[in-house]
Amino acid sequence: MTKSLYGAKEASGIWVYLEQSQGQLEGVSLELLGKARELVEGQRIPIVGVLLGDQVGGLAQEAIAAGADEVRVADDPLLSQYTTDGYAKVITEIILDGKPDILLLGATPDGRDLAGRIAVRLRTGLTADCTDLKLEEKSGLLIGEVWGFGGGIIAYIKCPDNRPQMATVRAGVFAVPEPDPARQGKIVNVPVKLAEKDIKVQVLEHVVGGGVDITRAEVLVAAGRGCQGDFALVNELASLLDGEVGVSRVPVDEGWASRDRMIGQTGYTTRPKLAIVCGISGAFQFTVGVEKAETIVAINSDAEAPIFEAADYCIVDDMFNVLPPLIKAVKKARGGNGGR
Amino acid sequence: MRPLHIIACVKVVPKPEEVKVDTKTMTIERGNVRSEINPPDMNVLEMALTLKEQHGGKVTVVAMGPPLFDPYMRLALAMGADEAYLLSDRAFAAADTLATSYALAQGIRKIGDYDLILCGEESSDGATAQVPPGIAEWLDTSQITYAEDLEVLPESGMVKAKRELAGGYEVIQVPLPCTASVKVGANEPRFMDMERKAWAQTDGPVTVWAASDIDVEPEMIGLPGSPTIVDGLAQAEGKERKHEFLAGTPEERAKVLIERLRPYL
To answer: Does residue B246 form part of some domain?
Structure first.
């Protein structure tokens, strides 16, 4: 067996990597703090946040309010932007110093980039893209739930001997905890041993924001191949319902929609109250990203489409026949209750 | 700079819609399931072949898996790859990402003289996306995950790519050698070349390496080398749904649906 750099006997605590961008914590980091709190309910297991960046100390208090008992902050101008080499070097040193039992990261592009790299550096196991976490009753081992084969199969994965037990978790699978401003916690500034020569990555351009976050939408109107690139009705319905437009894989591949709207295994896990799914056949890879919706409406011209098995209300017809009268009816209904 | 040597890592996966779990034995039934090259890895092959056309050099395909992967190696050769290596040994089986990335890295080390190692963003059966950064760490290369619009800059020995971020993107530049995972849908994979197909099937250079052919520590590969274990499997069960089919004219259906959706309006 490949031995990790430290063992289970020396390890303690649940650590959460606090991913930040432009002075804000990623939602998934807060979700993980909330889940970690829930996992240790009634036990004396410390929850530690690890925060890397440049002048990010102010975010530590937010992490404490969300559930951290302690936040270790590595603050350095060289950490102002995420680079694989810079961040991997610094976080590895912090981990080897603190020896966490469990290390959780958001399954964001940067979170996965970092997790995959440091798991090998630490010679430990990584359960990627978890859709749920629990602690095994007697052993206290982390059990990660992952979806395989496009979502048709669930596997439960654990890492008995190597430490830390690492997992990345998809955004949106846990709720963001209600912040408790009265919570007390310790903020520890850790020394950063990083020189310019340690960073080979040059960031030439960095554009974030202005995109949508479909994981937070209460109403999603989703469209797939069936829309043939015409989003006018879908956009109209989404905006009438104060919702967002989501898509399956096809519109992204076809260039009809941007990747940040993609629902499913390779896209985002969403948990809206209402999802109206138009012209999407409903392969596992898609439905895994929408099945947490409270209510699902499916509109598809193919009566045999698997999406109907995942839906509450089903309409077998072309979406372009269904949406115009539906939009009209929504307008009328909304007009009736004050036209919010 | 000498011509580019690009390693394209591919995986052969069962078609996801055909896979079922035997819930009694908790094993995955793969018996009658058809396989395919992991769809994101087709984007890898396309990117590798395009870069070869731009800069000269060669494309070497690497995969780890059972002998039944052989025809898929030849498919990659028919698309334009120059040679293929299949790491095939029972000792490699049941590897998690640590053991998989180690074995692939050692195979690539033996092939040698690589500039760029391209992997798929993820595999449709496991979808972990953790193997590419793992290979990068074992081989101490730079890495670019979720890459598209990848350009090799031969004068400076650098590679530049656009990379996906949460709610945005960045353009980064890193030194070669580099391991990159190619974003799904980054390009349109080409079809195989019919003339190459005949050659690939009969004379295509597919080399099979067992564990003893590459420099690996036996306890670091396969099941023994995997710190994670599968604790259980289950067939995914969706939430109970109402499955109410609405009939009538479009206007009638809209009216009924609005009644049902009243709480959300």
So the answer is: no
Contact residues on chain A for B243, CB-CB shorter than 8 A: 308-309, 311-312, 314
Model confidence at A62: pLDDT above 60: yes
Whether omega for the bond prior to residue B177 falls within 30 degrees of 0, making it cis, is: yes
**Nearest chain A Cα to B125, which residue?**
A149
Positions in chain B whose pLDDT score sits under 70: 1, 16-17, 20-31, 123-128, 238
Q: Tell if the CB–CB gap between B238 and A211 is shorter than 8 Å.
A: no
**Over chain A, what is the mean pLDDT?**
93
Q: What confidence category does residue A338 fall into, taking pLDDT thresholds of 50, 70 and 90?
A: very low
Find how far residue B254's CA is from the centre of its chain: 44
Contact indicator for A167, A39 with CB cutoff of 8 Å: no
Q: Which residue of B has its CA nearest to A338?
A: B265
Residue B167 inside a domain? The answer is yes
Q: What is the pLDDT of residues A29-49, one digit of tens each?
A: 999 999 999 999 989 999 999
| Residue count (chain A) | 340
Domains and CATH numbers, chain A: 6-198 (3.40.50.620), 214-332 (3.40.50.1220)
HSE at residue A151, side-chain half, CA atoms within 13 A, is 19
pTM of this structure: 0.86
| Closest CA relative to residue A16, chosen from A44, A43, A45 | A45
Domain assignment present for residue B257? The answer is no
Domain-embedded: residue B248: no
Q: Are B87 and B109 in contact (CB under 8 A)?
A: no
Q: Does A306 touch chain B (CB under 8 A)?
A: no
CB contact, 8 Å: B21 with chain A? yes
Burial B79-94 (b: 16+ CB within 10 A, else e): bbbbbbbbbbbebbeb
Out of B21, B163, B258, the one facing A333 most closely (by C-beta) is B258
Tell if the CB–CB gap between B132 and A259 is shorter than 8 Å. Answer: no
Q: Determine contact: B151 vs chain A, CB below 8 A.
A: no
**Three-state SS at B74:** helix
ipTM of the complex: 0.90
Across the interface, do A84 and B133 touch by the CB < 8 Å criterion? yes
* Secondary structure class of A245 (helix, strand, coil): strand
Question: Chain B residue closest to A81 (CA)?
Answer: B170
The total number of structural domains in chain B stands at 1
Please give the structure tokens belonging to residue A68: 């951290």
The mean pLDDT of A311-321, rounded to a whole number, is: 96
The kind and range of the H/E element at A98 are: helix A84-98
CATH number at residue B70: 3.40.50.620
Please tell me which of the candidates B134, B224, B234 has its beta carbon nearest to residue A120: B134
Q: The domain containing residue B42 runs over which residues?
A: 4-220
**B241 touching A, CB under 8 A?**
yes
A210 CB within 8 Å of a chain B CB: yes
